[in-house]
Amino acid sequence: MKTKITVVGAGHVGEITAQRIAEMELGDVVLIDIIEGIPQGKALDITQSGSVVGFGSRIKGTNNWEDTAGCHIIVITAGLPRKPGMSRDDLLHANTEIVAKCAEKIAKFSKDGTIIVVSNPLDAMCEVARRVSGFPKNRVFGMAGILDTARMRAFIAMELNVAVENVTALVLGGHGDTMVPLVRCCNVSGIPISELMPADRIKAIVERTAKGGGEIVGLLKTGSAYYAPGAAAAEMVEAIVKDKKKVLPCAAYLEGEYGCKGLYVGVPVVIGAGGLEKVIEIKLLPEEQAMLDKSAAAVKELVDLLKV
Prior knowledge:
This protein has 308 residues and is α/β, with parallel strands linked by helices. It has nine helices and 14 strands. The chain has a domain at 4-142: 3-Layer(aba) Sandwich (Rossmann fold).
């Protein structure tokens, strides 16, 4: 049976996620949105691009949740985007209502599905989706660290003028200004970046990574990032569909790992057919643990405000 994948929200992130999933031929895609005509038009456009690119995945645009029934994977991108001067925290209350409604529908029509959350503030929205859907923690997790790590890898490659595929990086913590880039885990083909650039440049890259989303929001002025988030979400879908057992930094529900309990925090995990199959716990340096604790505390502040 062909894999059925729903992308909730036909905004920029949703449309790019749907497009990449289709181009990678990971399954048939249902693109759903509340605005009539938008998901239908974008699905038709993506379908027609398949004639040029050469993929055969079917894409259906809809406003009807019944069309999503029996989905294996559901990617939630729905929600208000960040605007200049707006933090992810400002989005909390508005997007809580949106994500909660989505999770309720998912639980009704795709009770055996796996939810990937992309909506911001991401760590808190993962908790909303988990609570409302009632799904186990391995079937509700978030795309955060992949995007943050991708940004850091890109900045390192730009700084050193090297191929980005040779750059390895790792970013932990909440998806926001308190994220924790692990500099000691960053290298270029195994060579630590500390041997390739001075400390002040590394610090600048770390700071730019933490503010990466805000930088794009400031440049666009009317929206937020969508190409990299869409690509990151599609990578997670691929890891599940192909059972790749891929090690990726994702927002995972922790129950004691890294000293965090009852919170979604970005950590390295194994993604496969079972969803989030394992949390990989690495030994952090004292200063790294302190940064992660601070990041987790920021997530907890938001979660404590949730009204679901």
